[in-house]
Specification:
By secondary structure, the protein is an alpha+beta fold. The chain has helices spanning about 20-30, 45-55, and strands spanning about 35-40, 55-60.
């Protein structure tokens, strides 16, 4: 077909990454930064993104795992 192939993404529920010591440490570091825009790539649990959203006007998080983005 000229419209391409529909890709069946297996969206099974996967276990989210539970925040660990490294996540808590990084969240404490980013809390000292301020600005207009913040982008987190690999947001997973969203812990760091939530911390960024306190001090940035616009925050965006991305992740390859669709379940993390819900």
């Amino acid at each position: 077909s000229i419209f391409g192939t529909i890709i069946d993404l297996n969206l099974e529920q996967t276990a989210l990454y539970s925040p660990s010591d490294d996540t808590i440490f990084l969240a404490s570091i980013v809390s000292h930064y301020h600005g207009d825009f913040a982008l987190e790539i690999g947001t997973s649990s969203g812990t760091i993104l939530r911390e960024l959203s306190k001090n940035y006007s616009i925050t965006v998080g991305t992740d390859i795992d669709f379940c993390s983005l819900k």
